[in-house]
């Protein structure tokens, strides 16, 4: 064969070999998109499967029955965040968590019957400040938590439990005066009906608060705290161990209320979330995929 033809033939095979090489093939393949989940303010995301430890925004906590849960505070800034998990096999994985805004429902209460909550006296303002100083560290995120003694979904705080009033996170005014956002879900239950713990746990606080009225706070482990407000009376005390479904008090209308009902709230890893998301099958929660 002519020497020039040999050279052309050799160059052709070199080019063909490069085109089919693993390096070239790798560059032409489409990269696998990162895992992600969309979740609204006040909601909970989950990452299921062989989880050991979960982390988000410089906070970390143990998984619950092999699943990582990421509660989103109702006032968390919407945006693109990174979450991570450590699997039972020791692998560290990350995903995108996209928080979407959930506009607060406007709730204007007029003809409020309890005037001491309209024009609050200096004595009651001081009382409320003292109560907040005691409560705040109890419901805040803790780097070290007791092991979880609950399963999801949690139990119902009353039986039967009527449909909630849909006012979690509501932006409120009372007689035209702006008030803090509503931190729980209200259930229209008659006075005197029993209120029960939604899970096994330990009573953090049972107290008569200025705004909350008779209130019970229960630690269920792994940073989950349930709250029950406006009770007529409670039947538990701080540090008492309670069981799921145990009666802890009865519905009333104490504190800043217009009438009898149960205010049920939840704090999880310090985040204030809609408690309704813990009453449904976890499979229905937004999931990392």
UniProtKB/TrEMBL annotation:
The organism's place on the tree of life at top rank: Bacteria
Signal peptide: 1-19
Span of domain M23ase beta-sheet core: 181-275
One Gene Ontology molecular-function label: metalloendopeptidase activity
Keywords: Signal
Keyword Signal: yes
Pfam families: Peptidase_M23
Official protein name in the record: M23 family metallopeptidase
Native organism: Larkinella knui
Biological classification of the source: Bacteria, Pseudomonadati, Bacteroidota, Cytophagia, Cytophagales
